[in-house]
Amino acid sequence: MMNAPGYAAHDPTTPLSRFDFERREPGPRDVHIEILYCGVCHSDLHTVRNEWSNTVYPVVPGHEIIGRVAACGHEVQGFKAGDLAGVGCLVDSCRTCPDCTEGLEQYCLKELTFTYNSPDKHTGKMTYGGYSTQIVVDERYVLQVPDRLDPAAAAPLLCAGITTYSPMRHWGVARGQKVGVVGLGGLGHMAIKFAHAFGTHAVLFTTSPGKAEDARRLGADEVVVSRNPEDMKKHVNSFDFILDTVSAPHNLDAYIELLKRDGTLCLVGVPDTPHPSPGVANLIFRRRQMSGSLIGGLPETQEMLDFCAEHGIVSDIEMIPIQKINEAYERMLKSDVKYRFVIDLASLRQEAGEALRP
Ligand SMILES: [Zn+2]
Ligand SMILES: [Zn+2]
Question: Rounded to 5 degrees, what are φ and ψ at 10?
Fold first, then answer.
């Protein structure tokens, strides 16, 4: 076992604090990664505060992990020491079910192991995430991070990036289409970048008119203030695809009626309390679809990273030392971040008196 300094929540209400634990010694197929950066996702906060009622404490969050490979087991083929590597939301799955064999591991119903707060079959405890300096992961669940990507700004691609990229690919978003993105947060700002890179006419829906200028800078061709019914009406029956990233409950019909015949509204935010039910007639009369999507599998996440390297896409980030994580959560709750916090683990290495391997 190897010592791993980390930051953990020990209950739903007290701030995260230092928590040192052990990682397993790398097995034949394992990659040992020294973590450099870890993005801060809303799921981290939901889990820390037990808002999904499934948290096992202590919990070490973090599933947007970028680091350098320190060592590899002798059967590892895709990585070597010194490589830039990424770990997203998954660290294991059953590997044999139809979902796993199709590379859609995120939908595995058998043994899906999330990067944190999941039973860990190696240790018998729970998995611990990226708010730490070290992680050991089977190479099947490790991503190659192209050197052309800025490693800190690439971290959020591993959750916010793939969560928005995957549904656009699945529903065939392509050049010439009209694509909407609801909400300009961590997910929404990535969705706008992808919609732009795919060559669509990208439209941001927001409740805050103040975000218009920033949205255009990120790649939006149009910005619609969704609180203004007149502006919304101008877009009825015109969208091929709308990605809704907002997790607060809201009126879905307002977006469904903006879809063309056969258009799709895809939800990627999970509300704490349900959205008001949409009217069925709005779906039936134009054969529209309402759908959902969960992150992405390993092959598609790799494809997304390569796409981002080719098109120069990364997240807009604000870097923080890990000692500021509790403040960052408070600011995140006020949407006071453009558009993702990323923890620089050098701060924890320094606190723990740990050096990176040469
Ligand atoms: Zn996430
Ligand atoms: Zn499976």
Answer: -105, -10
